[in-house]
Amino acid sequence: MKLKEMKAGARGEVVGFTISDPAYRQKLLRMGLTRNAEFTVVRKAPFGGPIEIEIKGFRLVLRSREADAFEVGEK
Question: Which class for 69: exposed (0-12), middle (13-18), buried (19 or more C-beta within 10 A)?
Fold first, then answer.
């Protein structure tokens, strides 16, 4: 499942990555998007805009491209 498919208030966890660029993957890992990391979708902008999540005690806003770079599962 993709992050943009989740609704505001939903809880989930990072399952894996769908990108092959190692530098970009490292960027996501440094932001706390590690495998099995739990998060909550705080809010979503309309029309495919940014998505705000709360992960590991802080809030992170992801662009659509960043949100598509990993697979998530609902909790």
Answer: buried
